Amino acid sequence: MKKWKYLTMTAALGSALVLGACGSDETKETETGTEPATGSDAAEQGTAQLTGSVAGDGSSTVAPITEGLVEEYAAAQPDVQVSVGVSGTGGGFEKFIAGETDFSNASRPIKEEEAAKLKEAGIDYTEFQIAFDGLTVVVNPENDWATELTVDQLKQLWIEDGTTKKWSDIDPSWPDEEVVFYSPGTDSGTYDYFDEVILDGADLVKNATLSEDDNVLVQGVAGDKNAIGFFGYAYYTENQDKLTAVSVDGVAPTNETIESGEYTPLSRPLFVYAKNSALQENEAFYDFMKFTLENAGSMAEAVGYVKLPDELYQEGLTTLEGLK
Fold first, then answer.
1. To 10 degrees, what angle do helices 88-97 and 112-120 make?
2. What is the largest CA-CA distance in the chain?
3. What is the dihedral of CA 188, 129, 305, 141, to 10 degrees?
4. What's the burial of 127, exposed, middle or buried (CB within 10 Å: 0-12/13-18/19+)?
5. Would you state the pLDDT for residue 47?
6. Is residue 104 within 8 Å of 92, Cβ to Cβ?
7. Who's near 240: CB < 8 A, 6+ residues apart?
8. What are 246-257's pLDDT values in tens digits?
9. CB-side neighbour CA atoms (13 Å) of 237
10. What domains sit in the chain, N to C, each tagged with a CATH number?
11. pLDDT tier at 233, thresholds 50, 70, 90
12. In this predicted structure, what is the pLDDT of residue 212?
């Protein structure tokens, strides 16, 4: 099971936390608020104690940020239950459209067809940006030949062309060995983003192992010297002892290159989409979103992503206040 280094399991939080990304065939949730706060507890915490429940779902890339925020929020509001599934950006939007969730985590902007379905369902929503990510291409540490690739070479590797891809197809001096591919599943916003900026809408190689669980991808690449994969930057930083990040067009993914946009075209924003009616009708959800925007920057850095400029979080808080 994936355990993020900033998390601790303590009775003081009064919560249960199960970490990791999962696919659409399995549901793993983060929950808080199993024990109500007493009057003395509320006084000690110095904040109005709320009750209620909040439901979210979506991106496995955004999950480490949200899971950390849920854990921290439980200390402030132990009688609010926050449940967060991790079924991928696309799977999360499906639940959001169906009215099953208050918010949806996404590692890409909402698609036009998803926005149209929300409009048809009568669901108004607001987009909040919470962090930057650098989609990271990784290889096995034993791979000392493909640690620097160009965008064109990534296209040559990942786009299906009817052949069995070998490293020597990219560079004759590289091993005459078949490339082993690991990719996020098609419900993943990371897959969608890679499709947009690298595949240009072409088909991904047919023999790739697909998984909505980024930890499966980590393990796959770490276990095969001929493997290559991609996923969110935080999953690389958490596993950099067993993976090598590939420089793209001469630029390595780092906090600095991701924030500046130098790491292009694989730098991207991460989002939370919130249902407006739930913000207005559910005080607990409004409070959780306020907590999210106030703390997303520090949590993003804690789990290995890149915080936004402070003014963007303030803009988000101003937008949130206008929705109350």
1. 20
2. 72
3. 30
4. middle
5. 64
6. yes
7. none
8. 999 999 999 999
9. 21
10. 11-132+269-323 (3.40.190.10), 134-267 (3.40.190.10)
11. very high
12. 84
211: phi then psi, degrees, rounded to nearest 5: -155, 140
Convert the chain into a string of H (helix), E (strand) and C (coil). Answer: CCCCCCCCCCHHHCCEECCCCCCCCCCCCEECCCCCCCHHHHHHHCCCCCCEEEEEEECCCCHHHHHHHHHHHHHHCCCEEEEECCCHHHHHHHHHHCCCCCEEEECCCCCHHHHHHHHHCCCCEEEEEEEEEECEEEECCCCCCCCEECHHHHHHHHECCCCCCEHHHHCCCCCCCECEEEEECCCCHHHHHHHHHHHCCCCECCCCEEECCHHHHHHHHHCCCCEEEEECHHHHHHCCCCCEECEECCECCCHHHHHHCCCCCCEEEEEEEEEHHHHHHCHHHHHHHHHHHHHHHHHHHHHCCECCCHHHHHHHHHHHHHHC
Residue type, 284: A
Tokens at 107, concatenated: 């590692």
% of the chain exceeding 90 in pLDDT: 81
Strands 180-184 and 209-211: parallel
* Cβ-based neighbour number of residue 8 at 10 Å: 10
**Assigned token pair, 85:** 């599934």
End-to-end distance of the chain based on CA atoms, in angstroms?
38
The pair phi, psi for residue 249, each rounded to 5°, is: 50, 40
Place of tokens 């690449």: 221
Confidence at residue 221, expressed as pLDDT on a 0 to 100 scale: 98
Place of tokens 């919470």: 130
The pTM assigned to this predicted structure is 0.79
pLDDT at residue 237, as a whole number: 92
